[in-house]
Amino acid sequence: MPRKNYHHGDLKNALIKAGVEILSQEGIEGLSLRKVAQRAGVSHSAPYSHFPDKQSLIAAISTEGFNQLYAELDAAVLAYPKSPKKQLQQGALAYLQFALNNTDTFKIMFSGVLEKEKKYPAFMEISHKTFQRVVDVVRACQESGIIRNTSPEMMAVAAWGQVHGIVSLALEGQISHTVLDGHTIQEVVSFAVEQILLD
């Protein structure tokens, strides 16, 4: 494969993209920095200037994924500054859309293949920040009286888990066609959010 010329952050991004492709097709067992270099069209030693090992590449993939997810989630929430209910609903739909648009990255982010995640402060920071955004929305809903007034962190985990579970089922093609023949996946996610809200 002809070698490509990269400038500034292009090489790092190309390596991350190549890593996502390999992980999605071959799994963690198929990932190596040598393969990533080959797919990106650079020398075998090139990845080591950015990633000392395979785990640091996985951390970078997950970190970039969470950065993008946070940006999309935040934009959905900020679009409805006066309606916590809309923030929750649209945040859930933004989460779904991110997963549909970035399925391979999404699966890697939540696959558990990243070991010793505390070694990667950038990953820890953005993953915590993303969860905190969900907590903030839940707290705003509680203050509006539309979600049960209990621990906002526990409610955030419950809400996130409910939406994430449906999204994951959808990505794996595990939602019954008896449901999907009559409803879009967006409607299924919106229905799940409604179950979190108080009548």
Tell me what the structure shows:
With 199 residues, the chain is mainly α. It has helices at 10-26, 33-40, 54-78, 84-101, 103-109, 121-143, 152-171, 177-180, 185-196.
Question: What are the key terms here?
Answer:
globular; 199 residues; mainly alpha
What's the topology here?
Blueprint: H1 10-26, H2 33-40, H3 54-78, H4 84-101, H5 103-109, H6 121-143, H7 152-171, H8 177-180, H9 185-196
Helix pairs in contact: 1-2, 1-3, 1-5, 3-4, 3-5, 3-6, 4-5, 4-6, 4-7, 4-9, 6-7, 7-9
- Count all strands and give the number: 0
Strand content: under 5%
Structural class: mainly alpha
| Mean model confidence by pLDDT | 91
Number of contiguous helices = 9
Helix content: 55-70%
Shape by Cα distribution: globular
Low-confidence stretches: none
Q: Evaluate the radius of gyration.
A: 19 Å
Largest sheet at a glance?
Answer: none
End-to-end gap: 60 Å
Secondary-structure element pattern, one letter each? HHHHHHHHH
Put the structure in a nutshell.
The chain has 199 residues and is mainly α. Helices cover 67% and strands 0% of the residues. The mean pLDDT is 91.
